[in-house]
Amino acid sequence: MGTKSNKVSQDNILERIFKLTANQTNIRQEVVAGATIFMAMSYILFLNPTVLGAAGMDKGAVFVATALATIVGCVATAFLSNYPIAIAPSLGSNAFFAYTVVQGMKIPWQTALAGIFVAALLFLLVTLFKIREKIIDNIPADLKSAIAAGIGLFVAFVGLQNGGLVRASSSTLLTITDFHDPTVWLTVFGLIFTLILICLKVPGNMLLGMVGTSIVGIITGLIKMPQAVVAPIPSLKPTFGQALFHLQDVFNPQMIIVILIFFLVAFFDTTGTVVGLAEQSGLIKRGGKVPPRLSKALLSDSLSMISSSVFGSSPTAAYVESSTGIAVGGRTGLTSLTVAGLFGVSLFFSPLLAVVTSQVTAPIMIIVGAYMITAVGNIDWSKFESSFPAFAVMVGMPLFYDIAYGFAFGVISYVLIMVAQKKGEQVSLIMYIAAIIFLILLVAMNQAHY
């Protein structure tokens, strides 16, 4: 009797905090969604140390820093905004950090971390003053739908690439894969198996699809059995606090450019991702204003980025893989809290995560891309000022391999077309400012790479 009473009490607490009934969800659905997101994005725990290791950073410390920054971001998102969106160190930013800033510009990784800390503080200021929210509020409805669809294409493209279904070609840039590679067939199996589960309406179909694919991979020898179940947590000492110890090194022209790029990329990458995911989950209604708590979701990202620099990792961002959890019914912060909990557990059971290979997650990303592309139905294709910017966003995100770039070309083309059609007075001041900032971003990134 006491056990049943405790369970009911716990359920009531979760209901009050996350408003499960109002969001048409339940505890089981949210936990499954969180586990699905975790499975889809857990690769960052192993990929981030590899990338930042190229910058001379301790891989064990980066592993822990990656998990802790993710936990901070997801917990903040859960309780501040009640959104089903996971936040973790992003792939684009970590590559820029390691290969451009540290290796290319010869900036010590400690100083680069200090640059991230300063950029994160700027990020926090514009969030507290709700500048980000105002920008989102002034994005045309058609552009918001295009962002959701563009992220879908981006996610699907990443899935096709990670699963080995497409490969580079000297004549056509991309072409179909070589089916002599057995790992490709593991991706194909996972895709077919998961599609069947979805068609049969099996609960938790995407999570089960990944579990089944991992098992088949182990049986066939394509995925190695983990050598251990539990491993000691690596020390965070090599990277912890280095950003604070080297703040005095950021006050020079070279670092100002680096800080500007970190700030702009994080600002628009996360903004674009949050808008797309919010629309996918129904948190942004067609043609409506942005929900007030969206600013709290953006605040969560700012806090996570600050913690990431202090722990010793690259900038964080809202993860497009959150779409996998939203697709299976995640609607509240309980989904994000589940992700945080699993990342915490992963610190102790890191060897088990090695079975979640890119071939395991690729089918899920492809299927989620198909779900998200349905947002194109909301776009008014009869108006050029709607259709071309939407087209620019949707094409730009996967082909430029960057959400920020796709978002940038969509905003810039929208402003240009509206002015050319003598409808400039219908464009908000914020959209004009955003277009200018995007131009600065494009020029700054071009200078950094070349």
Largest sheet: 2 strands, antiparallel
Strand residues, percent: under 5%
Contiguous uncertain segments of 5+ residues: none
What is the count of structural domains?
Answer: 1
The chain-level mean pLDDT equals 87
What's the shape? globular
Straight-line distance between termini: 69 Å
Per DSSP, the total helix count is 19
C-alpha-based Rg, rounded: 21 Å
* Helix and strand sequence: HHHHEHHHHEEHHHHHEHHHHHH
Widest beta sheet: strand line-up = 1-4
Strands, total number: 4
- Helix share, percent: 55-70%
Helix/strand/pairing category: mainly alpha
Protein name: NCS2 family permease
Family: Belongs to the nucleobase:cation symporter-2 (NCS2) (TC 2.A.40) family. Azg-like subfamily.
Main location: membrane
Membrane topology: Multi-pass membrane protein
Descriptive account of the structure:
The chain has helices at residues 2-18, 27-41, 44-53, 59-81, 91-104, 109-128, 131-137, 141-162, 182-199, 205-220, 242-245, 253-280, 294-311, 322-327, 333-346, 358-372, 384-399, 403-420, 429-449; strands spanning 87-89, 166-169, 173-176, 316-318. The termini are far apart. The protein is mostly helical and 450 residues long. It has one domain (22-449). Helix 9 (182-199) packs antiparallel against helix 10 (205-220). It has a two-stranded antiparallel sheet with strand order 1-4. The protein has a two-stranded antiparallel sheet with strand order 2-3. 67% of the residues lie in helices and 3% in strands. The protein is built from 19 helices and four strands. A hairpin with a 3-residue loop joins strand 2 (166-169) and strand 3. Keywords: Cell membrane, Membrane, Transmembrane, Transmembrane helix, Transport. This is NCS2 family permease. Belongs to the nucleobase:cation symporter-2 (NCS2) (TC 2.A.40) family. Azg-like subfamily. It is found in: Cell membrane.
